[in-house]
Amino acid sequence: MRDRLAAEARRFANTVIWSWEGFRAAWATEKTLRQWSIANVLSAALAFSLDLTPGERALILALGLLVLAAELINTAIEEVVDHISPGLDPRAKKAKDCGSACVALAAIAAGVAWVVVLVG
Predict the structure, then answer these.
(1) Which residues of the chain, if any, have pLDDT below 50?
(2) What is the C-alpha separation between 73 and 100, in angstroms, rounded?
(3) Does residue 30 have an active-site annotation?
C-alpha cells in the first residue's frame, strides 16, 4: 500500500512539473497567453472588488481560467500542426483556425458571464 501511494505521489509530482514546464514554455513564446493572463488578473481584481456573490465570483474566475486553458490548447495545436505540416495545407489551416475559435468562444463566454453578472 505504501509503495502504491509513493508511486501515485511521484506520478502526481511529475504531472505538476510537466504542466508547469508547458505553461512556462508557452509563456515565453506566446504573447496572447501573456495578454489573456493580464486580462485575467484585472478581471479577478474587479471580481473581488465588486459586491458579487461567491457563485458569481467563482464563475468569473473559472471562465477566466478556461480562456487560459483554451489558449494553451490552441498553442499546442499550432505547434503540432507547424511541425507536421510546415507548408500550406487547407487541413492545417482548419486545425489552427478551430484552435483560435476555441479561444474566442471561451473569451465570449467569459464576457457574457460578466455582462449577466453586472446587468442581472
Answers:
(1) none
(2) 9
(3) no
